[in-house]
Amino acid sequence: MIKKLTAILLTAVIIANLCGCGQAPAASDTPYIIAGHSEPVKRENAYAECFTIYEYDNGDAMITTTDGGAYLITDGAPAGLASNVTVIPRSPDLIYLAASAVMCFYDAMDRLSDIRFSAIDADDWYIENARAAMERGDIIYAGKYREPDYELLLSRGCRLSIQSTMSEHVPKVREKLEELGIPVFIDRSSYETHPLGRCEWIKVYAEMAGCPELGEELFGQQKKHFDELEKVQSSGLTAVFFYITSSGRIVTRKAGDYITKMIEMAGGRNVFDFIGDDNALSAVTLEPEQFCLHAKDADIIIYNCNISGEIHSIDELTAKNELLKEFRAVKNGNVWCTGRSVYQDIMKTGDILTDLHTVFFDTGEKTTHLYKIN
To answer: Beta-carbon neighbour count of residue 239 at 10 Å?
Structure first.
């Protein structure tokens, strides 16, 4: 029976890898030469691979991304600009935000006032300041990314729309926004393979906001957590990070995923680190029997409450699947859950790494993004 389940699991992995999208190539290393502008100077990234920033002497900046995007941050569009370059006004406000991962960057910069429109309702924000801003009416709901309220955006003077790659499934939305004179920027922070690569996108939005030095500072604060644990030894403990869907299937993380990498950096090991590689999709969905075969002896359970809702007791967890009662971590009381803001708040990545280290080494430190249930 075990051999049969293993064969099924391996088959699922092969199929997932064949169907998965590959790792995005590095952002363009070819600078854009603009008439009347100096030779652009490339700013080196520490970890991010999906964007590049070039600076010109007059203060303009060009951001290129791995999907071929080119965005000029400027006070006015220069003559003769290539047709594939999107012009973004310097320090834009009245932004329509349809990429949930980006809100944390503006929150970290204390620039939520730049965001005027949201594609997400207040109840679905787990970043407290964003939710509060919507409840006050400082940020207003302007329709989902696939069905924005064009009339509202146009009448209220929207100056920029920041979209996630989900917008690529509805290209007519981008076409309509641009037709209305609203430039569109596509965020690709979720494609970064290194946890700090995601954090480094703060530099993109700090450049847009006209405060690049602040972006460097905020990135450095998160990088400091990683530097402090750079030489951490393995705790010898294994962990499994997952959630259970409404249909009872289980979603966990593969080897190339940033969560798996953070578990390793914190001194643990993901029991599913043999599935996939850095070029594979980050998540894999398994049948309960397949999942239990490898996860039942994990030392620590980390349940992803962000997706399936918070749980507060072992009984609530095992009610999702009776097989979990036989898990070593359940029997030993080593069950932890994520807070709801883990995925929305990229700028807490360093703090989450510190929490993971606390979990694996039982340091007794107070955790802020993980909580233990009993």
So the answer is: 27
Ramachandran quadrant class, 298 (left: phi over 0; alpha: psi -120 to 50; beta: rest): beta
Residue 110 burial (C-beta neighbours within 10 Å; 0-12, 13-18, 19+): exposed
* Angle subtended by helix axes 212-228 and 202-209, to nearest 10: 160
**What's the pTM?**
0.87
Task: Convert the chain into a string of H (helix), E (strand) and C (coil).
Answer: CHHHHHHHHHHHHHHHHHHCCCCCCCCCCCCCCCCCCCCCEEECCCCCCCEEEEECCCCCEEEEECCCCEEEEECCCCCCCCCCEEEEECCCCCEEEECHHHHHHHHHCCCHHHEEEECCCHHHCCCHHHHHHHHHCCCEECCCCCCCCHHHHHHCCCCEEEECHHHHHCHHHHHHHHHCCCCEEECCHHHCCCHHHHHCCHHHHHHHHCCHHHHHHHHHHHHHHHHHCCCCCCCCEEEEEEEECCCCCEEEECCCCHHHHHHHHCCEEECCCCCCCCCCCCEEEECHHHHHHHHCCCCEEEECHHHHCCCCCHHHHHHHCHHHHHCHHHHHCCEEEECCCCCCCHHHHHHHHHHHHHHHHCCCCCCCCEEEEC
pLDDT tens-digit readout, 65-94: 999 999 999 998 888 888 899 999 999 999
| Residues 251-306: tens digit of each pLDDT | 999 888 899 999 999 999 999 998 875 444 588 999 898 899 999 999 999 999 87
Q: 188 near 67, Cβ under 8 Å?
A: yes
Residues 257, 107, 168, 43, CA torsion sign: negative
What domains can you pick out in the chain, each with its CATH number?
A: 91-186 (3.40.50.1980), 230-373 (3.40.50.1980)
